[in-house]
Amino acid sequence: RPCASVKNPRKRRRRQRKRASWKTVTGSPETAWGRFSVVKRCDQRGTKRTVAVKHVNKKLMRRDRVTQELNLLQRLQHPHIVSLIDTYETPASYALVMEMADQGRLLDYIVSWGNLTEEKVACYLRDILEALHYLHNSRIVHLDVKPENMLVTGTSGQPTVKLTDFGDAVQLNSAHYVHPLLGSPEFASPELVLGEPVSLNSDMWSLGVVTYVLLSGASPFLDESAEETCLNICQLDFSFPRDYFQGVSQAARDFICLLLRTDPGRRPPAGLCLQEPWLQVGTAEGRARAEGCLDTSRLISFIDRRKHQTDARAMGGVRSFIQSRLQPQV
After folding, report:
1. Phi and psi at residue 223, in whole multiples of 5°?
2. What dotted CATH number matches 22-99?
3. Neighbours of 9 (CB within 10 A)
4. Could you report the per-residue pLDDT of 39-67, keeping only the tens digit for each?
5. Which pTM was predicted?
6. pLDDT of 26 above 50
């Protein structure tokens, strides 16, 4: 079993050799940080193959949670999902050796290259929808769909977007799984915020928020506090400010509204979203997409703000606040 404890000396030596086959690149900074982990660039000794190694802090994450993530990753094979290559263990962390996304995170890639258009946004979303469609067909819900978990590989001419970080993902074997609310709630669905059972369509809400961010550089529900942000989510309190959505087509806004529905049953599944005309190439609505470049200046501030939002604390108190505010006034 991956990351299982080892008592046999021979097994211990094999594990040490396995760990020795991966070497952190000298002088290479961490490529990403998460609530419980840090990702470092590494090279395989001999072949010089470059990979990304996710080190999960043992003090912050239980072994069974890591094992659950590994069990899921070992079953997944899809061109739009970052693949697991190997695993090993250090005294301080569980290490997951992952495929290296050479272009980094999606938002960083967009800001770096510029010239963002609706057509490019639609292409990026199709890649993520393909990944979600694959996951949902196996009853796996990701539960952490956000820009930081979207990586880019390939060239600027034909980039591929891949979904990563399955630390929150679960296979829904029953209709009553309640997921803890951790850190920033910006991309969380109403049912997750309220402590209600999640579903496959919880991911679709999150993708709707991601779409809003890509097109505008702004967060639709963000407020001055986590409590107010959650209240906005549950009350579906968002709009399309003219300054932020100037030059964005009505079809793009309609697609966002299609996903941002408080009732999970009214959100279209990933497979149906892939058939949406706005996401297609060569259709009338596809050709009607706005052709001008989108303003990406706000994405720089968005990226900088999000770097400081990796809080791993549970937010149970937020749910009590939301439920009290949503109760009918007598």
Report:
1. -135, -170
2. 3.30.200.20
3. 8
4. 988 887 777 788 999 999 998 888 988 99
5. 0.87
6. no
